[in-house]
Amino acid sequence: MKLFVAVTMLFSVSVHAACWTVEGVKGSSYSEREGYSRIDDGFKGKFTIVIDGERAAVLYDGLDAGGMIYRPFSDNVVLGLTTEPGKHAMETWVIQKDGTVLMTKTISGFGGLDSSKAMIGKVTGNCLK
After folding, report:
1. Nearest to 57 by CA among 98, 23, 11, 21
2. CA 50 to CA 27: how far, in whole Å?
3. Which of 104, 106, 129 is nearest to 119 (CA)?
4. pTM attached to this predicted model
5. Which helix (H) or strand (E) holds 2?
6. Which pLDDT tens digit goes with each residue over 75-87?
7. Residues 10-126, CATH architecture
8. What residue ranges do the domains of the chain occupy?
9. Read out DSSP for 3-65?
């Protein structure tokens, strides 16, 4: 019973909604096509990260990249996962209290696109109306 309560508390999400716009996402990437050597990487566009109860979404320049299923892990953490036979991708997004956004992404099974990324960005706005 104690284990059930601990797991339930770990995965509980409050019911309030949150929405952030995030820009300046940059960091490091290691990809198969680069021989898994570290390269500077980043995104020039704007991300929108939404947590609404038990649902979450991450959009890039207003578009859903497709295939990734996002779930809130807490009030400020979103996990994304997509999988099909032999192909997997996973993202984490953490919005810190100071407005720094931490992002990781791992892709496997896509040949030259196989990679691991660690990046940071900044919250530039709140998109709730």
Report:
1. 21
2. 22
3. 104
4. 0.84
5. helix 2-10
6. 999 999 998 899 9
7. Beta Barrel (2.40)
8. 10-126
9. HHHHHHHHT---S-EEEEEEEEEEEEEEEGGGTT-EEEEE-SS-EEEEEETTEEEEEETTB--
